[in-house]
Amino acid sequence: MELNNVRMELDEKLEVKIREINSKLTAVNLPMMLAEPGTMPEGSRVRMKPPQFDGKTSWTNYIRQFEAAAKANGWLPEEKATALTLALRGDATDILQTLSPNEQEDYEALVKHLELRYGQTHLEHVYHSQLKNRCQKSNETLQEFEADIARLVRLAYPATPTTVMERLAVQAFLDGLRDNETRQALILARPSQLVDALARALEFEAAKQSCRSQSRIRRVEEEKKEEPRIIEAIRRVLKENLPEKKEIRCWRCGKLGHIQSRCRGSQVAPTSFRKINRAEEKDVYIRRTTIVDDHWQSAEVQQDQERDPDLKLIIDWKKNDRKPTWQEVAQYSPNVKSYWA
Prior knowledge:
This protein has 16 helices and no strands. The chain has about 350 residues and is mainly α.
């Protein structure tokens, strides 16, 4: 019983303490919640340090961060102007030389001058031109192209409503696509947002790649089936158009299968064969015959030699045992000089 009484007393005291603490917290937080910006006690503010600006980063992104910090700190316009002036670094501080003291204390005037120098509002016509002429590059993916289109649309139409901006982005994305089939598929799909257009384009590219692989496999299989027919057709055409191969006959022995320079036999071709090829062998017999001897020369060969004007001259010199000088031989044809030499 005593333990229960002690426990109850402790619980009552604990509840009283909790109520006192809650009442004190309420008394402290209520003025802070109801206070206007810039009127809160100095020690009760949540201090957010604004970022620094050196003129090399994006002014649009910076001013958004600065406004967020100013709102969290509850700054008045004069305090915002002071904080923005202190946040300037590097080349950005040069703008202070062009401002009067009153303009430096005026937050709107300070932001206006910084916007004019580092902002992108005056470059909208440049971004309009870039967006109009933007096309997908040969080595550029759909994701990279979509990201750049979104960037240019935001820069070219900063004050445009979101729905209108999405339509402009989708149209620019369609106009700049490199593949005509993908563009046609997206036109039929009618995407309302740029993200949807990118998703549809990726799906279509994947499907097209899959179909292309299957068609390539079918084409290879068909080519394998047609290969024997093509080879047979080529052979037939070559057989019909190529000239027939002539038989090789030796002028020396008269046999087929080899030529005279590779003949290993000593047999002389028969007379009938020599008559058939007399026109072709005439020069050969002339070169082989340099001495006239009736004992081993046939009558037909001797007659052929005497009909040749150059060779007849050589034969006459041989018969008459005449040895003309080289000055005399030089007057005749090259054949005579060749035979006599």
